[in-house]
Amino acid sequence: MPAAMHNRLLDLLGIGLPIIQAPMAGVSSPAMAAAVSNAGALGSIGVGATDANGARAMIAATRERSNGPLNVNVFCHRPAKADPQRERAWITRLTPEFERLDAMPPSALTEIYRSFVEDDDMLAAFVADRPEVVSFHFGLPSAERVRALKHAGIVLFASATNLEEARQAAAAGVDAIVAQGYEAGGHRGVFDPDAADDKIGTMALTRILTREVDLPILAAGGIMDGAGISAALSLGAAAAQLGTAFVGCDESLADEGYRKALFSDAAHHTVMTRAISGRPARSLSNRFTAFGAGVAPADIPDYPIAYDLGKALHATGKAKGEFGFGAQWAGQAAPLARAMPAGDLVGVLAAELEAA
Length: 356
Hints:
Layout: H1 3-13, E1 19-21, H2 30-38, E2 43-46, H3 52-65, E3 70-75, H4 84-100, H5 120-129, E4 133-137, H6 143-151, E5 155-160, H7 163-172, E6 176-180, E7 186-187, H8 202-212, E8 217-220, H9 226-234, E9 239-242, H10 244-247, H11 256-262, E10 271-273, E11 281-283, H12 287-292, H13 305-319, H14 342-355
Helix pairs in contact: 2-3, 3-5, 4-13, 9-14
Protein backbone atom coordinates (compact mmCIF):
# COMPACT_ATOMS: atom_id res chain seq x y z
CA MET A 1 0.00 0.00 0.00
CA PRO A 2 1.38 3.45 -0.85
CA ALA A 3 2.53 5.46 2.16
CA ALA A 4 0.01 8.20 1.32
CA MET A 5 -2.95 5.81 1.71
CA HIS A 6 -1.42 4.44 4.92
CA ASN A 7 -1.16 7.97 6.33
CA ARG A 8 -4.69 8.83 5.20
CA LEU A 9 -6.04 5.84 7.12
CA LEU A 10 -4.29 6.88 10.32
CA ASP A 11 -5.55 10.42 9.85
CA LEU A 12 -9.07 9.12 9.23
CA LEU A 13 -8.94 7.10 12.45
CA GLY A 14 -7.23 9.82 14.44
CA ILE A 15 -4.35 7.62 15.59
CA GLY A 16 -0.59 7.90 15.36
CA LEU A 17 0.27 4.20 15.37
CA PRO A 18 -0.74 1.52 12.83
CA ILE A 19 -1.98 -0.69 15.66
CA ILE A 20 -5.55 -1.82 16.35
CA GLN A 21 -6.52 -3.73 19.47
CA ALA A 22 -8.99 -6.37 18.34
CA PRO A 23 -12.59 -6.06 19.56
CA MET A 24 -12.83 -9.31 21.52
CA ALA A 25 -16.34 -9.75 22.91
CA GLY A 26 -16.11 -10.89 26.51
CA VAL A 27 -12.41 -10.06 26.77
CA SER A 28 -11.79 -6.48 25.65
CA SER A 29 -13.14 -3.97 28.15
CA PRO A 30 -13.81 -0.24 28.10
CA ALA A 31 -10.73 0.19 30.28
CA MET A 32 -8.62 -1.71 27.74
CA ALA A 33 -9.97 0.21 24.75
CA ALA A 34 -9.42 3.52 26.49
CA ALA A 35 -5.86 2.67 27.48
CA VAL A 36 -5.02 1.62 23.93
CA SER A 37 -6.51 4.75 22.40
CA ASN A 38 -4.78 6.94 24.97
CA ALA A 39 -1.49 5.35 23.91
CA GLY A 40 -1.98 6.38 20.28
CA ALA A 41 -3.49 3.22 18.78
CA LEU A 42 -7.13 2.26 18.10
CA GLY A 43 -8.96 0.71 21.04
CA SER A 44 -11.93 -1.55 20.46
CA ILE A 45 -14.84 -3.16 22.24
CA GLY A 46 -17.02 -6.03 21.07
CA VAL A 47 -20.76 -5.63 21.65
CA GLY A 48 -22.02 -8.65 19.75
CA ALA A 49 -22.78 -10.41 23.03
CA THR A 50 -24.90 -7.62 24.50
CA ASP A 51 -27.93 -5.52 23.56
CA ALA A 52 -28.19 -1.85 22.62
CA ASN A 53 -28.34 -0.67 26.23
CA GLY A 54 -25.27 -2.72 27.07
CA ALA A 55 -23.44 -1.32 24.05
CA ARG A 56 -24.26 2.26 24.98
CA ALA A 57 -23.05 1.65 28.52
CA MET A 58 -19.75 0.25 27.22
CA ILE A 59 -19.29 3.17 24.83
CA ALA A 60 -19.98 5.63 27.66
CA ALA A 61 -17.58 3.81 30.00
CA THR A 62 -14.84 4.01 27.37
CA ARG A 63 -15.43 7.70 26.76
CA GLU A 64 -15.23 8.42 30.47
CA ARG A 65 -11.64 7.20 30.30
CA SER A 66 -10.52 8.48 26.91
CA ASN A 67 -11.21 11.11 24.27
CA GLY A 68 -9.49 8.90 21.70
CA PRO A 69 -11.18 7.04 18.86
CA LEU A 70 -13.17 3.89 19.50
CA ASN A 71 -13.96 0.86 17.34
CA VAL A 72 -17.22 -0.93 18.21
CA ASN A 73 -17.63 -4.40 16.73
CA VAL A 74 -20.88 -6.22 15.92
CA PHE A 75 -21.73 -9.71 14.67
CA CYS A 76 -23.50 -9.91 11.30
CA HIS A 77 -24.22 -13.63 11.25
CA ARG A 78 -27.33 -15.04 9.69
CA PRO A 79 -29.94 -15.47 12.44
CA ALA A 80 -30.00 -18.99 13.85
CA LYS A 81 -32.49 -21.58 12.69
CA ALA A 82 -33.85 -23.52 15.64
CA ASP A 83 -33.74 -27.31 15.30
CA PRO A 84 -35.25 -28.81 18.47
CA GLN A 85 -34.25 -32.37 17.59
CA ARG A 86 -30.61 -31.45 16.98
CA GLU A 87 -30.56 -29.26 20.09
CA ARG A 88 -31.94 -32.07 22.27
CA ALA A 89 -29.35 -34.44 20.85
CA TRP A 90 -26.61 -31.91 21.59
CA ILE A 91 -27.77 -31.52 25.20
CA THR A 92 -27.79 -35.32 25.54
CA ARG A 93 -24.31 -35.56 24.09
CA LEU A 94 -22.92 -33.07 26.60
CA THR A 95 -24.87 -34.36 29.59
CA PRO A 96 -22.01 -36.67 30.74
CA GLU A 97 -19.71 -33.63 30.97
CA PHE A 98 -22.22 -31.89 33.24
CA GLU A 99 -22.65 -35.06 35.30
CA ARG A 100 -18.89 -35.26 35.87
CA LEU A 101 -19.29 -31.85 37.46
CA ASP A 102 -22.24 -33.03 39.59
CA ALA A 103 -24.68 -30.93 37.60
CA MET A 104 -27.34 -31.23 34.95
CA PRO A 105 -27.52 -29.33 31.65
CA PRO A 106 -30.31 -26.88 30.80
CA SER A 107 -33.42 -28.53 29.40
CA ALA A 108 -33.56 -26.28 26.33
CA LEU A 109 -31.35 -23.86 24.40
CA THR A 110 -32.02 -20.35 23.13
CA GLU A 111 -30.53 -17.90 20.64
CA ILE A 112 -28.55 -15.85 23.13
CA TYR A 113 -27.19 -13.17 20.77
CA ARG A 114 -29.11 -11.08 18.26
CA SER A 115 -27.40 -10.43 14.94
CA PHE A 116 -26.81 -6.82 13.94
CA VAL A 117 -28.46 -7.56 10.61
CA GLU A 118 -31.85 -7.43 12.37
CA ASP A 119 -31.13 -5.34 15.48
CA ASP A 120 -32.74 -1.94 14.93
CA ASP A 121 -32.05 -0.84 18.51
CA MET A 122 -28.31 -1.39 18.10
CA LEU A 123 -28.29 0.59 14.86
CA ALA A 124 -30.14 3.44 16.57
CA ALA A 125 -27.64 3.39 19.43
CA PHE A 126 -24.72 3.76 17.03
CA VAL A 127 -26.38 6.57 15.10
CA ALA A 128 -27.03 8.37 18.38
CA ASP A 129 -23.65 7.78 20.04
CA ARG A 130 -21.50 7.87 16.90
CA PRO A 131 -18.45 5.79 17.78
CA GLU A 132 -15.63 6.65 15.41
CA VAL A 133 -15.57 3.13 13.93
CA VAL A 134 -18.10 0.32 13.65
CA SER A 135 -16.73 -3.02 12.45
CA PHE A 136 -18.57 -6.06 11.11
CA HIS A 137 -17.75 -9.72 11.74
CA PHE A 138 -19.34 -12.84 10.19
CA GLY A 139 -20.69 -10.92 7.21
CA LEU A 140 -22.29 -7.63 6.26
CA PRO A 141 -25.47 -5.76 7.18
CA SER A 142 -27.94 -4.43 4.63
CA ALA A 143 -27.19 -1.49 2.38
CA GLU A 144 -29.68 0.58 4.40
CA ARG A 145 -27.78 -0.03 7.62
CA VAL A 146 -24.47 0.78 5.97
CA ARG A 147 -25.92 4.06 4.64
CA ALA A 148 -27.29 5.00 8.06
CA LEU A 149 -23.91 4.46 9.72
CA LYS A 150 -21.99 6.33 7.04
CA HIS A 151 -24.51 9.18 7.16
CA ALA A 152 -23.70 9.44 10.88
CA GLY A 153 -20.04 9.92 9.98
CA ILE A 154 -18.90 6.51 11.22
CA VAL A 155 -15.93 4.75 9.62
CA LEU A 156 -16.73 1.14 8.70
CA PHE A 157 -14.52 -1.96 8.82
CA ALA A 158 -15.45 -5.49 7.76
CA SER A 159 -13.61 -8.77 8.33
CA ALA A 160 -12.79 -10.96 5.34
CA THR A 161 -11.11 -14.36 5.20
CA ASN A 162 -10.77 -14.54 1.42
CA LEU A 163 -10.84 -12.36 -1.69
CA GLU A 164 -14.52 -12.90 -2.48
CA GLU A 165 -15.60 -11.76 1.00
CA ALA A 166 -13.30 -8.73 0.67
CA ARG A 167 -14.85 -7.83 -2.67
CA GLN A 168 -18.33 -8.08 -1.17
CA ALA A 169 -17.26 -5.81 1.68
CA ALA A 170 -15.75 -3.28 -0.70
CA ALA A 171 -18.92 -3.28 -2.81
CA ALA A 172 -20.98 -2.70 0.35
CA GLY A 173 -19.11 0.55 0.96
CA VAL A 174 -16.85 -0.16 3.94
CA ASP A 175 -13.77 2.01 4.46
CA ALA A 176 -11.24 -0.70 5.34
CA ILE A 177 -11.03 -4.48 5.40
CA VAL A 178 -9.68 -6.64 8.21
CA ALA A 179 -7.79 -9.51 6.54
CA GLN A 180 -8.32 -12.30 9.07
CA GLY A 181 -5.85 -15.12 8.59
CA TYR A 182 -6.52 -18.71 9.57
CA GLU A 183 -4.05 -18.47 12.45
CA ALA A 184 -6.12 -15.80 14.19
CA GLY A 185 -7.67 -16.49 17.56
CA GLY A 186 -11.38 -16.40 18.23
CA HIS A 187 -14.18 -16.79 15.74
CA ARG A 188 -13.46 -17.10 12.04
CA GLY A 189 -15.07 -14.21 10.23
CA VAL A 190 -16.31 -16.44 7.41
CA PHE A 191 -19.57 -15.23 5.93
CA ASP A 192 -20.85 -18.80 5.52
CA PRO A 193 -19.61 -21.22 8.21
CA ASP A 194 -20.88 -24.20 6.21
CA ALA A 195 -18.96 -23.37 3.03
CA ALA A 196 -15.47 -24.68 2.26
CA ASP A 197 -12.78 -22.63 4.00
CA ASP A 198 -9.54 -22.02 2.07
CA LYS A 199 -7.79 -21.39 5.40
CA ILE A 200 -5.58 -18.64 4.02
CA GLY A 201 -2.86 -17.39 6.38
CA THR A 202 -2.60 -13.76 7.41
CA MET A 203 0.43 -12.76 5.38
CA ALA A 204 -0.77 -14.44 2.18
CA LEU A 205 -4.26 -12.97 2.57
CA THR A 206 -2.90 -9.51 3.33
CA ARG A 207 -0.77 -9.52 0.21
CA ILE A 208 -3.59 -10.79 -1.98
CA LEU A 209 -6.03 -8.19 -0.73
CA THR A 210 -3.59 -5.29 -1.01
CA ARG A 211 -3.08 -6.20 -4.67
CA GLU A 212 -6.72 -6.90 -5.53
CA VAL A 213 -8.82 -4.52 -3.41
CA ASP A 214 -8.50 -0.74 -3.53
CA LEU A 215 -9.08 -0.18 0.18
CA PRO A 216 -6.85 -0.06 3.26
CA ILE A 217 -6.16 -3.58 4.50
CA LEU A 218 -5.74 -4.34 8.21
CA ALA A 219 -3.77 -7.53 8.83
CA ALA A 220 -5.11 -9.75 11.63
CA GLY A 221 -3.96 -13.12 12.93
CA GLY A 222 -0.71 -14.32 14.49
CA ILE A 223 0.67 -10.81 15.03
CA MET A 224 1.98 -10.36 18.55
CA ASP A 225 4.91 -7.94 18.43
CA GLY A 226 6.52 -5.10 16.51
CA ALA A 227 8.30 -7.46 14.14
CA GLY A 228 4.95 -8.96 13.12
CA ILE A 229 3.43 -5.52 12.63
CA SER A 230 6.41 -4.52 10.50
CA ALA A 231 6.03 -7.64 8.37
CA ALA A 232 2.36 -6.87 7.74
CA LEU A 233 3.12 -3.28 6.81
CA SER A 234 5.87 -4.40 4.44
CA LEU A 235 3.27 -6.48 2.58
CA GLY A 236 1.06 -3.46 2.10
CA ALA A 237 -1.17 -3.49 5.18
CA ALA A 238 -2.20 -0.08 6.46
CA ALA A 239 -2.23 -1.34 10.04
CA ALA A 240 -2.19 -4.53 12.08
CA GLN A 241 -4.95 -5.77 14.37
CA LEU A 242 -3.82 -7.70 17.45
CA GLY A 243 -6.13 -9.68 19.71
CA THR A 244 -4.35 -12.46 21.58
CA ALA A 245 -1.54 -10.02 22.41
CA PHE A 246 -3.99 -8.14 24.65
CA VAL A 247 -5.69 -11.10 26.36
CA GLY A 248 -3.07 -11.18 29.13
CA CYS A 249 -3.24 -7.44 29.79
CA ASP A 250 -4.35 -6.07 33.14
CA GLU A 251 -7.58 -4.63 31.69
CA SER A 252 -8.61 -7.88 30.00
CA LEU A 253 -11.81 -9.57 31.15
CA ALA A 254 -10.23 -13.01 30.74
CA ASP A 255 -10.75 -15.07 33.90
CA GLU A 256 -7.97 -16.66 35.94
CA GLY A 257 -8.25 -19.99 34.16
CA TYR A 258 -8.01 -18.36 30.74
CA ARG A 259 -4.95 -16.34 31.78
CA LYS A 260 -3.27 -19.37 33.31
CA ALA A 261 -3.88 -21.40 30.16
CA LEU A 262 -2.53 -18.60 27.95
CA PHE A 263 0.79 -18.72 29.77
CA SER A 264 0.98 -22.52 29.78
CA ASP A 265 1.84 -25.24 27.31
CA ALA A 266 -1.72 -24.98 25.97
CA ALA A 267 -0.62 -21.85 24.11
CA HIS A 268 1.46 -24.07 21.82
CA HIS A 269 -1.56 -26.18 20.85
CA THR A 270 -4.42 -24.00 19.66
CA VAL A 271 -7.38 -25.73 18.03
CA MET A 272 -10.03 -24.60 15.54
CA THR A 273 -13.30 -25.88 16.96
CA ARG A 274 -17.00 -25.46 16.32
CA ALA A 275 -18.15 -27.30 19.42
CA ILE A 276 -17.99 -24.40 21.86
CA SER A 277 -20.21 -21.89 20.07
CA GLY A 278 -21.54 -23.41 16.86
CA ARG A 279 -19.15 -21.51 14.57
CA PRO A 280 -15.46 -22.22 13.84
CA ALA A 281 -13.22 -20.50 16.37
CA ARG A 282 -9.59 -20.93 17.45
CA SER A 283 -9.10 -21.71 21.14
CA LEU A 284 -6.33 -22.77 23.44
CA SER A 285 -6.29 -26.54 23.75
CA ASN A 286 -8.59 -27.51 26.63
CA ARG A 287 -11.25 -30.02 27.66
CA PHE A 288 -13.85 -28.52 25.35
CA THR A 289 -11.61 -28.61 22.27
CA ALA A 290 -10.74 -32.23 23.06
CA PHE A 291 -14.42 -33.07 23.26
CA GLY A 292 -15.10 -31.26 20.01
CA ALA A 293 -12.42 -33.16 18.12
CA GLY A 294 -14.78 -36.11 17.67
CA VAL A 295 -17.89 -34.15 16.72
CA ALA A 296 -19.23 -33.69 13.19
CA PRO A 297 -20.19 -30.07 12.38
CA ALA A 298 -23.67 -31.19 11.32
CA ASP A 299 -24.35 -32.44 14.85
CA ILE A 300 -23.82 -29.00 16.41
CA PRO A 301 -26.75 -26.55 16.66
CA ASP A 302 -26.56 -23.19 14.93
CA TYR A 303 -24.55 -20.33 16.38
CA PRO A 304 -25.32 -18.88 18.87
CA ILE A 305 -27.77 -21.54 20.09
CA ALA A 306 -24.91 -23.98 20.66
CA TYR A 307 -23.10 -21.27 22.62
CA ASP A 308 -25.95 -21.24 25.13
CA LEU A 309 -24.98 -24.76 26.18
CA GLY A 310 -21.26 -24.03 25.92
CA LYS A 311 -21.57 -21.09 28.28
CA ALA A 312 -23.66 -23.14 30.71
CA LEU A 313 -21.02 -25.87 30.77
CA HIS A 314 -18.25 -23.33 31.34
CA ALA A 315 -20.17 -21.66 34.17
CA THR A 316 -20.78 -25.05 35.78
CA GLY A 317 -17.13 -26.01 35.53
CA LYS A 318 -15.88 -22.64 36.70
CA ALA A 319 -17.98 -22.90 39.85
CA LYS A 320 -16.14 -26.16 40.58
CA GLY A 321 -12.69 -24.74 39.78
CA GLU A 322 -12.60 -26.39 36.34
CA PHE A 323 -11.79 -23.83 33.64
CA GLY A 324 -11.26 -26.28 30.80
CA PHE A 325 -14.67 -25.69 29.25
CA GLY A 326 -14.11 -21.98 28.68
CA ALA A 327 -14.01 -20.19 25.35
CA GLN A 328 -10.29 -19.54 25.70
CA TRP A 329 -9.84 -17.91 22.31
CA ALA A 330 -6.25 -17.44 21.16
CA GLY A 331 -4.26 -17.43 17.94
CA GLN A 332 -1.37 -19.61 16.87
CA ALA A 333 1.23 -17.12 18.10
CA ALA A 334 -0.16 -17.29 21.65
CA PRO A 335 3.21 -18.34 23.16
CA LEU A 336 4.38 -14.77 22.46
CA ALA A 337 1.78 -13.25 24.82
CA ARG A 338 2.93 -10.84 27.50
CA ALA A 339 1.27 -9.71 30.73
CA MET A 340 1.26 -5.93 31.30
CA PRO A 341 -1.11 -2.96 31.18
CA ALA A 342 -2.59 -2.40 27.73
CA GLY A 343 -1.13 1.08 27.37
CA ASP A 344 2.33 -0.22 28.22
CA LEU A 345 1.94 -2.98 25.65
CA VAL A 346 1.14 -0.41 22.96
CA GLY A 347 4.31 1.44 23.94
CA VAL A 348 6.36 -1.74 23.70
CA LEU A 349 4.83 -2.60 20.33
CA ALA A 350 5.59 0.89 19.02
CA ALA A 351 9.22 0.64 20.16
CA GLU A 352 9.57 -2.82 18.60
CA LEU A 353 8.03 -1.58 15.36
CA GLU A 354 10.44 1.33 15.21
CA ALA A 355 13.37 -1.02 15.85
CA ALA A 356 12.16 -3.39 13.14
